[in-house]
Specification:
This protein is of the alpha/beta class and 138 residues long. It contains seven helices and five strands, in the order E-H-H-E-H-H-E-H-H-E-H-E.
Length: 138
């Protein structure tokens, strides 16, 4: 299983995004891979979708954003949060001295560890580099 980060979902569903073709190619050329999405990525996708275009969002109304969420869940495998997510996240932020906005990335890594998902497809590899070799960036 490969977790799709929000950065990949945003570029995948935005044909005008400069990295759209990269994301689409990487996903569509791996038909034997199971791509999973975490609730956090869905929340973040919804936030980007409903944010104004002047703030690097899609400018969608909630109805449009809900349609995008439903399309995302239909296309990829949605896996809910593991029961021990908080405990895993807490260990990660303490062990790696995480602070600020990077706590969101730590939460995704905790989600991955809770579901034995070892691979992450992200366009923000530098944000997750510190977590290797616990996870592998693809």
């Amino acid at each position: 299983m490969i977790l799709l980060d929000t950065s990949v979902l945003v570029s995948y569903f935005t044909p005008s995004h400069p990295l759209h073709s990269n994301a689409a190619h990487a996903i569509e050329t791996r038909p034997d891979s199971t791509f999973v999405i975490a609730p956090q990525c869905v929340y973040e996708l919804y936030a980007v979708a409903t944010r104004p275009t002047t703030q690097r969002g899609f400018g969608y109304q909630p109805e449009q954003a809900n349609l995008l969420v439903n399309t995302t869940i239909a296309k990829f495998t949605f896996v809910n949060d593991p029961r021990d997510l908080f405990e895993r996240w807490s260990w990660i932020v303490q062990h790696f001295n995480v602070h600020g906005k990077t706590t969101h990335d730590a939460r995704l890594v905790a989600w991955m560890l809770g579901h034995n998902v070892s691979e992450l497809f992200t366009l923000n590899g530098a944000d997750f580099k510190r977590y290797e070799p616990m996870i592998r960036l693809v």
